[in-house]
Records
---
Amino acid sequence: MGKEQALMDTSVEVASRQSLPVISFAERDEATLARQLDQAFSDIGFCYFSDIGIDKALVEGVFAASRRFHVQPRAAKDAIAMNRFHRGYMAPKTSIIETSSVAKVTKPNDSESFMLMHEVAPDDPRYGRPLDGPNLWPDLPGFREAVVAYEKAMHGFSMRLLRPLALALDLPRDWFVPYFEQPTTFLRLLHYPPHAKNAAEDAFGSAPHTDYGFITILCQDSSGGLEVRRSDGTWLPAPPIAGTWVVNVADMLSRWTNGRWQSTPHRVKNLSGGDRYSCPYFFDMSMDSTVEVLPTCQGPGRSAKWPAVRYGDYLLERLDKNYAYRKQPEPA
Ligand SMILES: O=C(O)CCC(=O)C(=O)O
Ligand SMILES: [Fe+2]
């Protein structure tokens, strides 16, 4: 490969790409990881992670919990319908991605989910602010323990990931840490029913969208159906690979990097014929974080493409537009 080609390959996504890169965290030094992360996130904004040090039993536990939750009768799930803090059960066809920059989305998503966010205790000064309130739990023995154990492990890994991410962007290795002392996190236990045979072409389990925050680390079952948009507008499948997580850059991280890392649109159609389960973990900065283009991602000829934004404001605007329950009048 000539030097010019090599340079191009690190900055321009290869339109003919047939698969996403897999980055292994087994015995890799931070500098190597940083290089691989930079390449993947600059190219297509998506990759797989393997060997991230999370016990298989934790993964099996969270999927088992999700299945137990979703097979319950609808009334049991509605008993913990999503509260104004964005926690609880989100019924099918109650989210429509009106803020999609990708497509005119007209149909609500054909999926249901249980949403868990960072816990905010009543004695926490943040308690009661928008999106800072209590989680809701189903009446299922062992459910909470399994879900919290997985969430804790994902949080630990995500904190460790901050260093190679900072190095990849030529920042001091602990640069991101202060933004994540009180992170905004979402663990979503998603269930997709089989895609209806007569469904319209533009009906999706998850319509084309980008994620809002910093980074998303998703574990999927063996059904398949997730697709990632290439820069030429075609869609690349992100099929299940045992022992891996699918990872993507979200809007705030893309904005922080002045677009060097891409917040890539993705979508889901569950064509497996059976139920599909996935568990995305959204690891985002504290609500009060100001996201302003990084000093290392701007300079002469690379002026900042976005003004500074407070993450909590950006997030609220998105949620208010995309979720039906947020459009109802507040209960008295
Ligand atoms: O279920 C999936 O594979 C993707 C889910 C997703 O993109 C999301 O919840 O933001
Ligand atoms: Fe997503």
---
Amino acid sequence: MAETIISLQNAVVSYREDVALQGVTLEIQRGELVGILGPNGSGKTTILTLVNGLGKLLQGNVRVLNHAAGSSFPATLRKKIGYVPQVHNIDPRMPVSVKEVVMMGRYGQLGMLRRPGAPDRQMVESMLRLVGMTHLAERPIGHLSGGEQQRVAIARALAQEPDILLLDEPTTGLDRRARTEIMHMVHEIHRDRGLTTLMVTHEHKTAAALCNRVILMKEGRVWAHGQPRELLRETVLNRLYDL
Ligand SMILES: Nc1ncnc2c1ncn2[C@@H]1O[C@H](COP(=O)(O)OP(=O)(O)OP(=O)(O)O)[C@@H](O)[C@H]1O
């Protein structure tokens, strides 16, 4: 039976003068891969922030994994949510290796002051293998290409052993090949683990092929939601983007 693990009811979020979400209601079932698409500034990232327990609600409510999100969002809950933010260029001088970045994903499980043990190291190795980054494990994170950095970010999120994976435009700035590889990886992770995945993306063709469901955002509202094949069509997208 379907189990709702994310629910937003009439969520309103505003940042100083901008209203980012103007009353968003949506539900995500366990095991779904849902794409969030829409024009720049339509509130897509803000939805991920709310699900990650970090956004400030002006109105409405948010429940994630059976907890009300907000100021009382427990840290234990955030550990169950793997968040892959939009890639930003990492300073090449950053003195942290790929392996150490992925180990950061274990810190939530380790708790304060506990040192990583053999199971944590094994988890890191297995996630590096999963994303095809074993050969670069010792390299400083800032010396990787954008596509490689994105793989590492996904490995770090998975090393958390999350119940929910949030991806914010995982292919932005990547070349065609890296984009295809990352999307293929997202698809495989979802298929093999049945991990509930919420992905903000501008890639409507890939989203049409991969997602179980899509949510189209416009001006802080859910403009449409439903089957990718019905919604991610040229005529609908032209209206969504006012073309
Ligand atoms: N930290 C912030 N402070 C002030 N305004 C913000 C902040 N974050 C987002 N906004 C505003 O809220 C609105 C929604 O932003 P959001 O980042 O959720 O949109 P988006 O759909 O993810 O956009 P994009 O496709 O450009 O990433 C925008 O008008 C944006 O300018």
